[in-house]
Design a protein that fits this description.
- It is a single chain.
- By secondary structure, this protein is α/β, with parallel strands linked by helices.
- It has two domains: 108 residues, Urease, subunit C, domain 1; 288 residues, Alpha-Beta Barrel (TIM Barrel), CATH 3.20.20.
- Helix 5 packs across helix 6.
- The structure holds N-(iminomethyl)-L-glutamic acid (NIG) and fe (iii) ion (FE).
Length: 409
Amino acid sequence: MRNWVLTNIKSLVQVRSMPEKPLVGEDFGRVPCIDHAYLVIRDGKVFDFGPMENLNQEVFSSFSIIDCSGRFVLPAFCDSHTHLVFAKSRENEFVQKIQGLSYQEIAALGGGIVNSAMHVATMTEEVLFEQSKERLLKIVASGTGAIEIKSGYGLTLENELKILRVIQRLKNENIIPVKATFLAAHALPLEFIGRKKTYVDSIVNTWIPKVAEEQLADYVDLFCETGYFDLEDLDRIAEATQKTSMGLKVHVNQFSTFGGVSRAIHHKAHTLDHLEILTEEDLLSMVNQPTIATVLPGCSFFLNLPYAPARSMVDHQIPLSIASDFNPGSSPAYNLFLMWSLACINLRLSPEEALNALTVNASFAMGMEAEQGAIFKGYAGKIIITEKSPSLAYFPYAFGENHLHQMIN
Ligand code: NIG
Ligand code: FE
């Protein structure tokens, strides 16, 4: 592992000890920085930093030096919601969408999640691992330093475990820290149509206990949505999860609203993800609760859906994180610089708010706040060195430009 001294940094961004809770209110609008700074990374961790005039370079004479004149240095982003283990991309559905079909219409024609599951079923664990690892390396090279990955393209015990084992192997590769989420309730397999209860019976009675016993996941998730899983399924899956040490995440209110938000809050979900369609009542049920709202602007952009009312959430002091939702069906994009832009342009967050949602609050959204998401002594030395830039706001402003000069991982 190489040791580094970054010198003459134009601005060292997100320098803070981690707050006890996700950022809200005024704190959410501020990003602490040190201008004209240095940063030392030793043994993969933040070791020292401060204003340039305090650097005693002789102490670090054996370290590799990088002159960062004109560049910003940021902690790597945290991506708290991805589905990166899949067998095959679905650009054929992209073309169908251009021709006017909706996400639900494509699913009804045999596309969507069930189609992805068919391809996972015919792929060996080895091939799935190799191509997922390749994907993860590309994600890291784009500026992501920690990630959550969901199963959900298996839909049988055998294939869900196959995906969870792939995620476990990705964890063991130590490329970046990984959290695993068990999402068997992602779609109803065709052979269970008309028998949803039987499918959920298996999940709650057998699959969740087995995943817990084998310690293959940190969280359990479900797609609580019209045509997928309902409030009763949410109750059952939440109750089965509570008997384990795993936390609860819920895909909710992506296309419709029917009480899933307040029900998931009642079950003390760690995060609620999507939230594009939200009533005033849904919003108010999230106020003064520990549950984090995870908003996915890449999905709204790609599917031409409404954007989650993130501005109202922030104004109500609801803790907010942003993630990519990287998956082959609704958000085939993992670049968090792009999500930073979409968050500013379409969610009406300030550049500072969006960055806090992609670092500090995103690390809370996957239980990694003790080591990721900020520049602090002992924190992960996963660092973005940007291209030369006039200001922090330039990064989300110049959307689509490659802002990443070098990733220290
Ligand atoms: O988060 N909404 C459900 N699950 C994914 C999409 C999965 C797929 O279409 O393959 C999402 O958007
Ligand atoms: Fe998702």
